[in-house]
Amino acid sequence: MCSAKGCRAEAVWVLAWNNPKLHTPERRKTWLACEEHREHLSQFLGVRGFLKDVVRLEDWEASQN
Fold first, then answer.
1. Which of 25, 32, 46, 58 is 20 to 30 A distant from 3 in Cα terms?
2. What is the end-to-end Cα distance of the chain in Å, rounded?
């Protein structure tokens, strides 16, 4: 499900991020995004310098196995 506030749409994207003040460089936190909110959530994280990668959910899941 999309991580955007109030959105109940199916997630299609994984936004991998890291807050360098709190996390080690290799650590990745994730937000999920639908098509509609991918850009907005990416910009939110990007402005703060947190965004590390944006990948399709199916590719992220495949890489985790």
1. 25
2. 20
